[in-house]
Design brief:
The chain has helices spanning about 1-15, 20-25; strands spanning about 40-50, 55-65, 70-75, 80, 90-95, 95-100, 105-120, 125-135, 140-150, 155-165, 170-180. It is mainly beta and about 180 residues long. Helices cover about 10% and strands about 55% of the residues. It has a six-stranded antiparallel barrel with strand order 2-3-6-7-5-4.
């Protein structure tokens, strides 16, 4: 008799319970984490051009790869973009965060972006901004944010920039101000 009452009670509990009670997913600690396909720590990457020359190298403290979006997110990127010939001085770029999109077609650096190229024994071209988009294959860089370019000859600021790093063409798009040092 007790078995029949217990079985009936359990049956009624299941029968009268809404289906949502049985469909809820268990809560886990990983629910708040991004759904990356892979995680890496202290990475070092080196990519080559189609002709076999070094194209880019990157160091980062952490990386997350999202296969479906073909995107790599990195923390504290330190990238070197080599020129078209071995004689060309490379451009170095550091930032708080970076995102490499479409297998390396585009790299977006954000947060205290600092880029520089050594042009002499003690001279550098320097660029600072909060966001920089780099197209590594063509060495085109652009931003829609405030940018400061510093060289041995002076300092120029503006909002928005397009540049061809190989041919050393820098176009500031708005609110341009500059100081030129005569030698």
């Amino acid at each position: 008799m007790i078995m029949l009452l217990g079985s009936s009670g359990i049956f009624l509990l299941f029968w009268l319970s809404p289906p949502e009670v049985f469909l809820e997913k268990p809560v886990s600690d990983s629910d708040g984490l991004p759904k990356a396909d892979s995680y890496m720590l202290n990475i070092s990457m080196l990519t080559y051009s189609k002709t076999g020359e070094k194209a880019n190298s990157m160091l980062a403290t952490e990386a997350r790869h999202f296969k479906r979006a073909n995107r790599l997110e990195v923390e504290k990127p330190d990238m070197v973009s080599f020129g078209k010939t071995p004689e060309d001085q490379p451009w170095h770029m550091t930032a708080e965060k970076g995102t490499v999109i479409k297998g390396g077609e585009q790299a977006v650096f954000t947060g205290s972006v600092y880029a520089w190229q050594t042009v002499g024994p003690s001279e550098r071209k320097e660029l600072t901004t909060e966001k920089l988009v780099l197209y590594p294959e063509t060495h085109i860089a652009e931003t829609d944010r405030h940018v400061t370019i510093t060289t041995a000859q002076g300092k120029t600021t503006g909002v928005g920039m397009w540049s061809d790093l190989d041919s050393e063409i820098f176009k500031l798009l708005a609110n341009v101000k500059g100081i030129h040092r005569a030698r």
